[in-house]
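FIELD: query
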Amino acid sequence: MKIVLDVNVLLSALIKDSTTRGVLIKADFEFYFPEASLHKIRKYEEYILEKSGLSKEEYEKILHNLFKKIKLVSNEDIKMRWQEAKKIMEHIDEEDVIFIATALSLPNSIVWSHDKDFQKQEKIITLTTEQIIRLGEK
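FIELD: result
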């Protein structure tokens, strides 16, 4: 199964050695993240370091290990589905257009997020961490 990560899922995995991080590292899913959203991870680096108590080196190692399991989706692939995604999400939350566009660019994909705005659209299935775990148990 192809799962597009919302930025908050990735931030959660970086901040705490949690269920989220465990699922990302151990689950037998294909994880994807929009290349264009990497700037948000960089933007929150200091916040992540502060909240997690990690050193810069530890943070870099965790980030590197996570991205061994997460494939980046190119801006070109996302751009091809941008207008369709914009029609779906612009009236809900424009910041989420990129994740819907990413999911649309990957056949049979879902979004992993706790952002309730994704539940307001009906085109792409969105699951929470608990639902992802249950899906992995099947």
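FIELD: remark
Residues 56-69 form the longest helix (14 residues).
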